From TrEMBL:
Homology family: Belongs to the sulfotransferase 1 family.
Protein name: Sulfotransferase
UniProt KW keywords: Membrane, Transferase, Transmembrane, Transmembrane helix
GO process terms (BP): hexose biosynthetic process
Residue spans crossing the bilayer: 54-75
EC numbers for this chain: 2.8.2.-
Pfam families tied to this protein: Sulfotransfer_1
Gene for this chain: LOC117544719
Sulfotransferase domain mapped to chain residues: 219-457
Organism (species): Gymnodraco acuticeps (Antarctic dragonfish)
Domain of life per record: Eukaryota
GO MF annotations, alphabetized: N-acetylgalactosamine 4-sulfate 6-O-sulfotransferase activity
Amino acid sequence: MDYKYSLLGSAVDEYRKRPLLLQVDDTPMNLFAVLEVKRELPRRWSTLSCFRKIRLYSFLFGLAIMFLIMASYILTGDKKGLLLTPSPYHFSSLVSPGPFDFNLSSVKDYAHIKQVVKSITSKVEFRSSRQPPELKALVNSEPHMFSVIPRKFLPGVKNPCWYEEYSGNITSDPYRTNLYARYSRRFRTVFQHLRNTFREHVFHHDGKPYRMRCLPYFYIIGQPKCGTTDLYDRLRLHPDVKFTTFKEPHWWTRKRFGIIRLSEGFHDRYPVEDYLDLFDQAANQIQGNLTANASGSPSQPNIIIGEASASTMWDNNAWMYFYDNTTKGEPPFLIQDFVHALQPDARFIIMLRDPVERLYSDYLYFGIANKSAEDFHEKVSESLQLIEGCLLEYTMRSCVYNTTVNNAMPVRLQVGLYIVYLMDWLTVFNREQILVLRLEDHASNRKYTMHKVFDFLSWGR
């Protein structure tokens, strides 16, 4: 189509006085087509202007080259140089490659992989020879935690709660230093509400102010990608169960060591007070029920608190950085040792699934693009070889809890070795305190599994 262009305005000698409008055919263009004609017409490019344009074009050209290089890494799948988790090839001195040195680049090397899997499973033991540490050793390793949480809780209350003397000024902000509020917008909103009602829940006795503190009655401790979120969502629909603002505080396994994300290194360690703050909303409700009972109301304090960090069962990776390595490569303390010392009557729910399905779901959830069955196969092969090499020198427990090996594996293969973790939990807790569910059963009959959960918690439906 041919266009005719004309200038709308007065005579040419008026061009210095006002902007001119550009017209295509006979239809004026919109506001964005207004052109301001300047006095210097026609302009000449100065040397400085040309230099600036050359710099701009050079920058854009460099940016385009960098984009093409990054795209080539993603599209070709050659991502080893970009991943935060190092390749097993970078850990050649860590463990020997194992007796079955198969070709990692081949996606058809199934025979050798089966040999490796068979070799690994032959090292699995359906018992634990672990001796739990003494209470004195636990207290010495975490003295502040044991000084804050008492050994006995309020009688007549189903949930473990106690009254803590408040040493601060009740008119000041009790949550101003909480690290969860620093990194979570949702918690900032919740804490704002708690600040506004804090003074209402301060209990005075003998002239001293006290606040109610609570720990969870039960924990959903694992495993990731096994349906724990669905169970959490269904349980919190019940009016008498309370969780924190978000599902997974990860305090026992990560936050108390200052770990937010492993790739970011260590931050400030979250004190136990920050963790207890997460349950203040539920504690206020339990305290309200106790007050109502004292006034003659027939209501009962049946509220229970749950916590659903799916890392609690298995993640002890921080031990290598904080505890002395005097136990032949195995952690001297596990998460359950501390929980048992503080809450010997706690209850735990574990959701499991086919470990291969779990691993593939985990693989799809984490990492960058360009996922495929072939890429998954290669990463599993690398992880299998690392574990097999570790088992040449160490026990299965040592390899499962080996932080260096775990960080080297491109997929979290160790999380699927359920038996190791479960046996270790049973060294400190009774079988009656742990409920193990299968995702496959839950998916086929949710009503049945939820009834099992309610019965396990001794809880009304």
